[in-house]
Design a protein that fits this description.
The protein is of the alpha/beta class. It is built from ten helices and twelve strands. The chain has helices at residues 43-51, 73-79, 94-103, 114-127, 142-155, 172-188, 200-206, 224-227, 230-237, 259-264, and strands at residues 3-10, 23-28, 32-36, 61-63, 66-67, 80-83, 160-164, 192-196, 209-214, 217-222, 241-245, 252-256. Helix 6 links the parallel strand 7 and strand 8.
């Protein structure tokens, strides 16, 4: 299968602070992929490079054989939609907020048409935010705001959906709700999804493919089973872990080990205890 998103030798960032260095990976169309790595590894910088917020060489990023940096803004909006980590709780109704996604793709008129409203309705219903359409964004819960943000992004009808930590600040119930929805959209709409995600267990459970970053470089890529092994995690996160396989999903699960437990199992004259059956 041809690569849908191609990132080759991407270098971008901030001259006096942090830069991505020679980042390369490819994604096939219709995949649900995650970007993982510790704080400061370059995850958000990568997204800013993909969306054009940070300058990149025009040949570094291709989407469906088109150079993304060379796309006009409206064309880019029809191809790539972004859901930010924190949804700005603007003082407008949910329906009007979602319709803003249609305005981003229109060449001339900024006024919505009947067709725009039908598209917005479709994605509000699909994300489950339709019953809240007349409520103001500022009065929604964090989980509801995230659903409205996803509906607005889908209203652009993009080929690639970028999500920056979609489960940030959500409890476990709403984390699962949002990720189940993303998985559903990926499957039913054949939508290619790339999301930044901090929780390694959620990344392993929901993603088909992972990109692990460390200090501005790609450390590992591949399936969750390939990337989320204890060697990779301990090398990148500098934390002792145990990895097992979820007996139902057959996806990797990561267990942390506290310093207290490690100290209690320490072997005299040796370093920390490392379990044999990782």
């Amino acid at each position: 299968m041809d690569n849908f998103l191609q990132i080759q030798g991407l270098n971008c960032g901030y001259d006096d602070k942090f830069r991505l260095q020679n980042v390369s990976f490819n994604l096939q169309k219709g995949i649900l992929a995650g970007v993982i790595g510790p704080n400061g590894s370059g995850k958000t910088t990568l997204f800013k490079g993909l969306t054009g917020e940070l300058a990149v060489n025009k040949n570094n990023v291709k989407l469906n054989n088109l150079f993304v940096p060379a796309m006009p803004l409206k064309q880019k909006a029809r191809n790539i939609a972004v859901v930010t980590q924190t949804i700005d709780p603007v003082d407008i109704a949910v329906e009007d907020y979602v319709l803003l996604g249609r305005c981003r793709t229109k060449k001339l008129s900024v006024f919505e048409t009947r067709g725009d409203r039908e598209i917005a309705r479709k994605y509000m219903q699909l994300t489950g935010i339709w019953p809240k359409r007349h409520k103001f964004m500022a009065r929604l819960s964090g989980g509801e705001q995230q659903l409205a943000g996803i509906a607005r992004a889908l209203a652009q009808q993009p080929q690639l959906l970028l999500l920056d930590e979609p489960t940030s600040h959500l409890d476990i119930t709403h984390q699962v709700q949002v990720l189940n929805l993303i998985q559903q959209l990926n499957h039913e709409l054949k939508l290619t999804v790339l999301m930044i995600i901090h929780d390694l267990n959620l990344a392993g459970e929901y993603c088909d493919y992972l990109v692990m970053l460390n200090e501005g470089r790609v450390f590992a890529t591949g399936t969750p089973a390939h990337v989320l092994n204890y060697q990779n995690i301990e090398d990148v996160y500098k934390t002792v872990v145990i990895t097992k396989t979820n007996p139902l999903s057959k996806k990797p699960a990561v267990f942390l080990v506290s310093k207290k437990v490690l100290d209690s199992m320490a072997i005299p004259g040796a370093g920390h205890y490392v379990p044999n059956d990782k």
